[in-house]
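Justification of computing resources. Each target in the renewal requires a structure prediction run like the one illustrated here; the chain below, 260 residues long, is used simply to show the kind of job we budget for.
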Amino acid sequence: MFTRIKEDIQCVFGRDPAARNRFEVLTAYPGVHAVIMHRFTHYLWNIELKWLARILSHFARWMTGIEIHPAASIGRRFFIDHGMGVVIGETAEIGDDCTLYHGVTLGGTSWDKGKRHPTLGNDVVVGAGAKVLGPIKLGNGARVGSNAVVMKNVPEGATVVGIPGRIVMPKSDRASKDDKRHAFARKIGFDAYGTRDDMPDPVANAIDCMLDHIHAMDGQMQKMCKRLKCMDMAPEDLELPDLGACEINPVAKDTSENKD
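Resulting structure tokens:
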């Protein structure tokens, strides 16, 4: 148990750039306090001291704003960032190297006893305010966007956003298209990648599809022009504007000046 607590403290430095030293993490991080208390209450729960485990977890909730049922199973190097409002249910299972942000709920959708809370694989990240509900499984490396509501299984490496949660794009498919999209975006003077690649939003995804379509049309037009040149029917050269030199967000000129 103490080895796991040490790992829980150490992993903060890799996931929170605001962390400065171990003393600060140990004394000023409520997410760490909640995880340490859960390690202890989970041990008490397993040796049948369930009432004491519940009382101590209730005290931890009062102190940190984070509610973790003592029966929940949590893996190594677990980090809760900020933490206020996090709820982890009784039958939830969390793998190694997972991260939850504030307002996350790993909840149930039934009053029946038995497995009714989610199972998270390794290296899963759940964004602020997200709700993962029911006895579903999130595969290794899955990402859940902020405020998403997830009620279905999520495959490994996929990103889920929206209400209800939907898979934006599997990680493998997204990686295979990134280089082409970035190159074409630079060509037309536009960059839709202000958001992180592993946490896209529906607008960025729609723009990605538009870039793919425009790229395909551009390639087709180039082939048609080559064919026409071979038939001595080359179209007149058209001087296209340099989109890279255009202003993306031009400032509107003030036209409200009064004229004499």
